[in-house]
Amino acid sequence: MIVDREPGHDALARAAELLRRAVRRRQPVAALTGAGISAESGVPTFRGSGGLWHGFRPEELATPAAFARDPQRVWEWYHWRRGLVLAAEPNPGHRALAVLEERLQDAFTLITQNVDGLHQRAGSRRVVELHGNLLEARCTRCGRVEPLAPEASGIPNCPACGAMQRPNVVWFGEPLPGAAWARARQAAATASVFLVIGTSAVVYPAAGLVEVAAAAGAGVIEINPEETPVSDLADSVLRQPAGEALPALLREAGIVPG
Ligand code: APR
Questions:
Q1: Which of 47, 91, 95, 129 best tests ligand 1's pocket when mutated (most atoms within 8 Å of CB)?
Q2: What is the domain partition of the chain in residue ranges?
Q3: What is the pTM of this model?
Q4: Closest Cα to atom 29, ligand 1: which residue?
Q5: Which CATH class is domain 1-43+90-131+173-258?
Q6: Dmax over Cα atoms in the chain, in whole Å?
Q7: What φ, ψ does residue 85 adopt, rounded to 5°?
């Protein structure tokens, strides 16, 4: 593993070489993103000081039991987070991944644990959302998914059947959406380069995708200012914010002009 703490060093050159080779040969590339990629847009991450889980226990807000106990409280938390996201803008890290998709087309798969929709707003079209989307609500009875109006508040009801809606996100203890998970696993198992960006890599099964990719022989590039449990699996580690590292990587790989 080569670790870069500043741009322009060995790890960046190594990562760029992996990416350049994959692009030249049109080999599949996949990326797994977490809350860290949206940090520079002002959306708080979950763990660490200042994180969303600091001072909150996830099981009080992000479990089916918490929702059954107090749907009003859970909805208030999601409305607050939705407000933060709607006021935020995609950053250069999100935009760099949209550029990579534009260049690689079907050979690129963007897998995200984020529920903020910022990848799509940056121009990514084929986003695999593993944990759902907080801009949507899902009916607790008929399962219909609806976009939430920006001004939505309180506990919304399904326009089709009138039952209570819930946030269309995956809570602790719930399975991931089957189709999204299948696409993500397939992309990880066949990638020649796997980027893991802005995730603490402690929440499974998503974090296991890095192991799948590494075991299948992908070149793994980690972008994260902090060490994580998957750092040891990486061929190249860029210890920088994603909004700096990703544009630098694309320039170094010759994907965008330097
Ligand atoms: N650029 C890149 N990485 C960053 C940046 C940045 N600017 N800022 C912070 N990070 C890193 C942190 O070092 C940390 O490793 O982003 C990571 C954020 O980790 P978490 O807060 O744990 O977020 P995530 O990995 O997405 O959490 C996984 O946990 O609570 C659940 O469902 C929720 O999808 C979420 C899942």
A1: 47
A2: 1-43+90-131+173-258, 51-87+134-169
A3: 0.96
A4: 203
A5: alpha beta
A6: 58
A7: -70, -40
Torsion of CA 145, 149, 155, 161, to 10 degrees: -40
Ligand 1 neighbourhood includes 129 CB (under 6 angstroms)? no
Q: Assess whether the C-beta atom of 198 lies below 6 angstroms from ligand 1.
A: yes
Active site residue 131: yes
* Bridge partner list, 190: none
Q: What is the pLDDT along the chain (258 residues), one digit of tens a residue?
A: 777 665 547 999 999 999 999 999 999 999 999 999 999 999 999 987 777 776 777 778 899 999 999 999 999 999 999 999 999 999 999 999 999 999 999 999 999 999 999 999 999 999 999 999 999 999 999 999 999 999 999 999 999 999 999 999 999 999 999 999 999 999 999 999 999 999 999 999 999 999 999 999 999 999 999 999 999 999 999 999 999 999 999 999 999 998
Which phi-psi region, left, alpha or beta, contains residue 109 (left: φ > 0; alpha: ψ -120 to 50)?
A: beta
Q: 26 alpha carbon to ligand 1 midpoint, in Å?
A: 29
Provide the CATH number for the domain formed by 51-87+134-169 in this structure.
3.30.1600.10
